[in-house]
Amino acid sequence: MNLPCDDPLQYCRFCFTQFRVEPLLSRGQKDQQLVKQISSLVQIELDSNQATTAAICSMCRHQLTEFQLFRDRCKHHDSIVRDKIEGDQSSQNDMWFAVEPLGDGDDSDEDDTPISNDDSFRSVPVSEKQTKVNFWRAISRDVGVIPEHIQRDLELTGFYRNASLGMISPTTIKQIEQDMREAVEFVISQGANRAEVLRQYYGTVYCKNPSKFKFLAGEVQTILSITAAVQENGITEYLNKASLSQKVSSRKEQLNASGKPDNADILAETLVEKIQDYYKQYTTDSREFKAFIARLPRQKEIDVRQKEDGSIFAFIHCSYCKKHLQAFVDSRWNVWRVYNFVKHTQKHYRVENIRTAKRKRAQGGGETVIDESDDIHS
């Protein structure tokens, strides 16, 4: 098979098409990330000279993004399953961690971990409606106000949270206008209020005359601005921002649905002591360990709350990444459980998982092994 032409910038390096082709390094820093993505996903290594003289088509760029999203989704859902298994095991087997400082470059895996992997708010469901609000809010920060009916139109025609959102052209917009008529009628056929549906999807201008619907000139520019933003930043960035917004919203919802117990300060102080004592068992003279201990949360960085059912939980502020991790009081043993926090700190200070025996005293005397079930008031 021959090359399409002699100029490597006139055809796609990966499929040989000459349609909608652009230089591989035409978008600055973002394309440096694309080269790394090609290496990671396709195992094609391009040095600086090769990358400079290579081109990629819009479809291959789209396929790479979709592949990355597929990979991220798989890893995310796999982590949920594994965390569930580990969580079940940790409730039956006490877990201790030997602390070991991270060496230079040892935390390279952290960039591969999606924001949504943080299980601090795993137990807090977020509605699909709120997810959509967060997603469009993230994009609107870059492109300005996005009318509600444009958001709904892109959702209805399959562009919502999809990498194809970055591939919309004027021709695509015309196709969306055509698809809308049939799609909206289907929504109405499901029992929705016709007048309300027409307003939601056609806006105030065409809601009473949907057969003539088309996007206004300013709306076309808004859609193209959305496409440009997704092309520039990648759909993953907005999905991650939406995920982060969900966590913030979830924390606010939990705070609003709970109150401070009367002994909140005492509980916070006990939690601080538990975390400090937990790590001090593995005290070393290293400067890294001392710095790590110094950055463990203090009482003012812990927000203790009580739900309506009487259960106690707390948000622990991480001084490294500014996230909030949950701890809770195990009502069976009246102890703080800090698995979320300990697991999270692995990102900042490498820990080695060690299974230990439950607290027991050897018959005939012997040393007591203190585990995570120590009473919080002791």
Could you walk me through the main structural features you see in this protein, from its secondary elements to its overall organization?
Helices cover 48% and strands 10% of the residues. A hairpin with a 5-residue loop joins strand 4 and strand 5. Helix 5 crosses helix 7 and helix 6 runs antiparallel to helix 7. It is built from twelve helices and eight strands. It is of the alpha+beta class and 378 residues long. The C terminus is likely disordered. Strands 4-5-6-7 form a four-stranded antiparallel beta sheet. The radius of gyration is 27 Å and the shape is flat. The N and C termini lie far apart (77 Å). It has three domains: 84 residues, His-Me finger endonuclease fold; 116 residues, no CATH class; 97 residues, no CATH class.
Low-confidence stretches: 90-126, 352-378
Helix-strand makeup class: alpha+beta
Quaternary class: single chain
Mean pLDDT rating:
75
**Number of domains in the coordinates?**
3
Q: What is the helix content?
A: 40-55%
Q: How would a textbook summarize the main sheet?
A: 4 strands, antiparallel
Number of helices, where a helix is a run of at least 4 consecutive DSSP H or I residues: 12
- Strands of the largest sheet, in order across it? 4-5-6-7
Strand percent estimate: 5-15%
Gap between N and C termini: 77 Å
Question: Can you count the beta strands?
Answer: 8
Order of helices and strands: EHHEHEHHHHHHHHEEEEHE
Radius of gyration: 27 Å
GO molecular function, one term: zinc ion binding
Biased composition (Acidic residues): 103-113
Keywords: Metal-binding, Zinc, Zinc-finger
Domain ZAD: 10-84
